[in-house]
Amino acid sequence: MCAPMSERSIETDIAIVGAGPAGIAAACAAAESGKRVLVVDDTPWLGGQIWRGEQRHPTSPEASQWLQRFRDSGAELLDSTSVIALPALGTLLAERLSRESISIQYQRLILATGARELFLPFPGWTLPGVMGVGGLQALAKNGWPVEGRRVVIAGSGPLLLAVADGLRRKGAEIVTVAEQAPLGQVLGFATSLVRYPSKLWQGMQIRSRLLDVPYQLGTWPMKAEATGKELLVTLTDGRDRWTEPCDYLACGFGLVPNIELPLAAGCELTSGGFLAVDSYQQSSIPGIYCAGEPVGIGGVDCALIEGQIAGHSAAGALEQASKLMDRRDRWHLFRLALAKGFALRDELRSLASSDTLICRCEDVPVGRVGEFDGWREAKLHTRCGMGACQGRICGSAAKVLFGWGMQSVRPPILPAKVQSLLSTT
Amino acid sequence: MGDAIHLQINGREISVPAGTVVAAAIALAGEDRFRRSVMNQPRGPLCGMGVCMECRVTISGRAHCRSCQILCEPGMDVRTDE
User: Fold this and answer.
1) Is B39 on the interface with A (CB under 8 A)?
2) Choosing among B31, B49, B57, which should be mutated to test the A contact, i.e. which has the most A CBs within 10 A?
3) What is the helix (H) or strand (E) element at residue A31, kind and residue range?
4) Between B28, B32, B48, which is nearest A128 by CB?
5) β-sheet with A215-217: strand ranges across
6) What was the ipTM of the complex prediction?
7) What does the CA dihedral B25, A165, A297, A339 come to, rounded to 10 degrees?
8) Which residues contact A182 (CB under 8 A, 6 or more apart)?
9) pTM for the structure as a whole
């Protein structure tokens, strides 16, 4: 008996997964050289998470330029569409929000799947009102109420200050910004910015707007408690501990790459857990390229250049790709400075008590998972990582807490209707 | 506002500006319990980017919709805490 076919089939020269800066830059580079380009994205908007809301309320001239360039490029966007499987080289299987399943036939594939925040478990991290730093920022861009709300921002990375600035513009009261990295580390990072004048200027502007907001270095959250509609967040600098009442705790410990789709495609990883690519951004599988955060957490500027290189390479314009390589390599030094400046302290690995949940989908406590020697065993025995997020949150946490790596990814990449999956057989 | 969208959150009518995601409309309606965990704990959005699945709600009869990634549309019937 024949399995039902997907409801629609699309053919393209180059398929791109992800409509953030890397995907947009790749699409422009490839489409401008005459290739048929189809960009698939989970969200209903162009711009990914970092340029979310830029179409409706532009704040960044650079974003506006790229969004316009994309619209002029001839590349097509298939939004509100999740890639759920790669049944064979040359085919992507996707599902639209409308539940329509689509099969996409491509010659070349560019994966620009971005990054997510790293969340580490601590008592109270599952309470409503405890959210990601980028998470609260993303939601606030689409109407989440922050005006007049007190927000504690904690975790690590340059995103903390950027989000403090963004939320305050929307009327939030920033109680404090607690950065886990100590002064020396952060100063080292700040010094490295001298090589990147645009970043340095951006950082100085943000900092100057936040002079009246505490930026507490070497400080991290220990727990959050709910009292009525208020949250009480306990912070520590390793010596003292104190409590801050607030409406929201925005907490994220940096970014981790979204490598599930590239892994499912069979692409190899580096020892650091990123996608391995050559100088043309081509992965270990010929014809599959990767750009942006999945190959290393480097931010928007790095993603834009890698995206263009991937787009040119996939379109066969290798000379144009080569011209951008020096600029990219300079941003790779920034990537290193970022990793060093905001390296995580050991104390963060023991914030959770044994009954603190690590897997929020299946409600599995840290203590249960810690009884096992590896991720696979822990999954099999506790159902940790087997819920709706498929281990994206707890798997990343377990990697930091226990040093376990993710070994494999199986389709569907995201929860999908059975009918869509039948098309893969 | 000319482009206000009317939808229902747990049976209550709310009006939000165009471009508002369903998760934000739920927060604007004063709800902070988006779903119940397997151990019956209340949960709300964490990642805001469609990854963690904590913001799942039922929209017009369809369960498990990621409210952080879906824009409000007129007449949506949103149910939380299920």
Assistant:
1) yes
2) B49
3) helix A21-31
4) B32
5) A130-131, A248-252, A150-155, A173-179, A215-217
6) 0.97
7) -140
8) A217, A218, A345
9) 0.94
